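The methods section describes the discrete structure representation at length, but only in general terms. Each protein is reduced to its one-letter sequence and a matching series of backbone shape codes. I believe one specimen quoted in the main text would settle the matter. An entry of this sort, consisting of the sequence and the corresponding backbone structure tokens, reads as follows.
***
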Amino acid sequence: SIVNVPGESTLRRDFIRLQQENKERSEALRRQQLLQEQQLREQEEYKRQLLAERQKRIEQQKEQRRRLEE
């Protein structure tokens, strides 16, 4: 039969607690990473929209100038 060494249950409890804390920390880091990735995607999308709008305005101005010159 297995005999519990004095202090073994404390060690086991500490180990389990540390494992749990480690798991929670990993999950928190993962959530933070996902959030940062999402924010980056949103920033890229916003930049893309701004560039598209700017390009559209430039095209409209060219078209207006072309019409005025006719």
